[in-house]
Every structure is written in structure tokens, then in C-alpha cells.
Structure to design on (269 residues):
């Protein structure tokens, strides 16, 4: 479904998702956001985060509040859903710092508030690739000046994630995150690439070359598996840095993560 332009009637923008949700599904993404965006949240004069398209149950919004409050005690979360029945069903979970409202990509917040953080997880999978840029532009225009949009995809129980971090100026980084014990090869994460990249995992595209090199480095690090899958991952990412702009370090690698610049994986053409 095409994304409506701002000139069209004021009503929720977007389409209803499947609504699949499970407790702790987004824990890897949440922990990364609390760490990477924590300094900006602590500086914010209005530390409000939006859980956009939280789904059929409000677990992800409840969990997001708890994780953000580890870095900012007065952080608040607004869960936004385009399906009115889901909003009504979430109301019993509302409490101080946590509310739910009807809306979509227009991100309706009271009083013209601009969120310090927007998380849009598993929201764009059903959209066309050509719609992604318009959605990103609409969402990042709603951010506070030091805000962050995190858009990506994960599996049903949160073992594998890939997300893009987007500032008001545009996309910044891509993060790959996994439960290491479940990983056969790094390219297993290809099925969780966000919509902007999933159709670009073909020869000639940067993301395909990255995953190819990731698998090769993983194979070369096989002897480290005798120590642990974590040690193998750390060795793999360390080797990957020789050819790819990895922007994080061993502290995050130990969590089964690696983050690279958006520019290095951005689609060609």
C-alpha cells in the first residue's frame, strides 16, 4: 500500500500489520537503543519514545519503558497502533509513563511533542521497497533534533535482528544482532534484513558482498568455536573490520552484535 502524502486528509497513515508479538521479542534492539542512544536520552528535555505498530498485544511497549528507564528514570513511552481494537485492548496496561493511542506514520503526540526515539519494528515488511524512503522521511521529520528512529526486523522469538538507525538527517548505521548459539552462518541473518535491504541481497549489491565476507570470516574463525561461539563471533568481526566500516567495538560484539555504516550497505541505483 502506498504511503499517503501530508497533503491528504488527516487520518492514520499506513496499513494494519499482522500484529505478531511475543514477550522479549525486541530485547536485543531495546538494549542496543538504551546503550547507543542513552546519552541523547539523558540530554533530552522531553525523553518520550514511541513504539510504533506494537501489534496485537502491548508487551513490547511495556518492556521498552522498563529498558529505557535504566538510562533515564523519567523516560516515557507512547504505543501507537493503527488498529483501534489493539489500542483499546492495551489500555489496561497504561500507567505512569506509558500510554497508548490510535495512529500511524504521522506519529500523533499531544501538544506537538517530538519524540526522542521512535522504534518501528516489523512494521515495513509488508510494504513495497519503493515506500520505505517516504516512510523514513515522514518519521524522521517527527523526531526531536537529537532524536533517533530505529527501523528493522526480527524473528518471532527475538533470536535474529537487523535494524537501521536513522537520525533527523537520514540513515546512519545498520546493526546485525543474534543469539550466537542459534547461528549457523552470519548470512542466516539475511532473512531478517529490513525492507530497504532485503531485496538487495543479490550479487552486485553491497549488502550481498558484506554477508559473503561475513561468512568467509566466520569460516576462518572456526577454530575459536572450541572456546565459545562468542569468541568466534568476536574474532570474525575483528577480521571483518579490515574491509568494512565497523563502528562499534568488542563490548557490543560480545552481545552478538555488529554495526556498520549505512553508506557501506546502501542499495546501488
Amino acid at each position: 500500500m502506498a504511503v499517503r502524502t501530508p497533503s491528504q486528509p488527516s487520518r492514520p497513515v499506513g496499513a494494519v500489520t499482522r500484529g505478531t508479538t511475543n514477550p522479549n521479542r525486541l530485547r536485543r534492539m531495546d538494549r542496543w537503543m538504551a546503550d547507543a542512544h542513552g546519552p541523547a536520552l539523558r540530554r533530552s528535555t522531553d525523553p518520550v519514545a514511541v513504539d510504533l505498530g506494537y501489534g496485537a498485544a502491548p508487551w513490547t511497549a511495556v518492556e521498552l519503558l522498563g529498558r529505557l528507564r535504566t538510562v533515564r528514570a523519567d523516560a516515557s513511552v507512547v504505543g501507537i497502533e493503527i488498529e483501534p481494537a489493539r489500542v483499546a485492548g492495551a489500555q489496561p496496561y497504561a500507567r505512569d509513563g506509558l500510554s497508548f493511542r490510535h495512529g500511524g506514520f504521522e506519529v500523533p503526540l499531544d501538544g506537538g511533542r517530538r519524540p526522542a526515539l521512535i522504534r518501528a519494528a516489523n512494521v515495513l515488511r509488508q510494504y513495497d521497497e519503493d515506500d520505505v524512503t517516504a516512510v523514513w522521511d515522514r518519521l524522521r521529520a517527527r523526531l526531536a533534533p537529537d532524536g533517533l528512529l530505529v527501523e528493522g526486523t526480527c524473528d518471532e522469538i527475538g533470536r535474529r535482528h537487523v535494524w537501521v538507525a536513522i537520525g533527523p538527517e537520514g540513515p546512519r548505521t545498520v546493526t546485525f544482532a543474534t543469539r550466537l548459539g542459534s547461528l549457523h552462518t552470519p548470512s542466516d541473518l539475511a532473512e531478517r534484513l529490513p525492507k530497504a535491504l532485503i531485496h538487495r541481497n543479490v550479487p552486485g549489491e553491497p549488502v550481498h558482498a558484506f554477508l559473503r565476507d561475513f561468512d568467509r570470516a566466520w569460516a576462518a574463525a572456526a577454530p575459536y568455536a572450541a572456546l565459545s561461539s562468542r569468541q568466534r563471533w568476536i574474532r570474525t568481526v575483528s577480521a571483518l573490520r579490515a574491509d568494512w566500516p565497523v563502528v562499534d567495538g568488542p563490548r557490543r560484539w560480545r552481545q552478538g552484535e555488529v554495526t556498520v555504516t549505512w553508506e557501506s550497505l546502501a542499495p546501488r541505483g
